Fold this sequence. Notes:
By secondary structure, the protein is of the alpha/beta class.
Amino acid sequence: MDFEFSLAQLTVLNSSPIEIAKIAHNCGYNYVSLRQIYMGLNNEIRYDLKKDKKMKNELRSYLKNTGLKVLDIELARIFDGVEIKEYEDAMETAVDVGAKHILSSIWTENKGYYIEKFNELCELASQYNLTVDLEYVPIAGVKNLDDTLEVIKNTDFDNAGIMIDTHHVHRAKDNPKRLMEIPEKYFNFAHICDASKLIPKEKDEMTRILREERLYLGEGGIDIKDILNNMPIVPYSIELPNLKKVSLVGYEEHAKQCLISAKNYCEKYVHGRYSYPKEA
């Protein structure tokens, strides 16, 4: 089976858009997933393609010459006081570089407010023919599959999607078999990585691991195959930050090992919800 993979920004966090594209192409990825909406994290460098037209043109030329594509633009967070219109520049950038999806997550507990704002985000993105793919995060406001499905159920726009991250499914203790019940139209891409089976009890430790210490597929204790085999086959964006590995081998070698381990794992274990596994 042919799988497609994207190199996510968090895996090579401080790479510029052209740098991540070159790393992805050199390693054999199909896509890149670019951060153009910033989170204000420590040591996070901002590369704004809307303002840096020279870099944007260089990226577009590189994509055209190599066949590499941009999968999605991140991260349109919904939080108390968010101004959805401020994400419009990133949507324009997404169209300029050929991306099809905007990644979103929700970081407020105010349900009525975040459902309203998610609808507003979908409406704005629909003007650019972009999907808005909601990722639940166990340390955020929308933290599990039930929360996510409730948002989608209350969304009035058909460009809303659900973005499953293997790390978050495990940490939220969601039953992967429930993914089988979700219509195929809501799945556009997924995040994959591995991590320790043990779920941290402290929020700070959970945050540290998801930002600094995820593992190559097959190295940890997440039942990744059970998650992916209850979903349609979609492009897999490898979001796998690991500061120790990067410090030892650098971004490109780390990205290469991410892809090798993901390909090996998927070819061995993943068949998707519409296919059947090969006999042993």
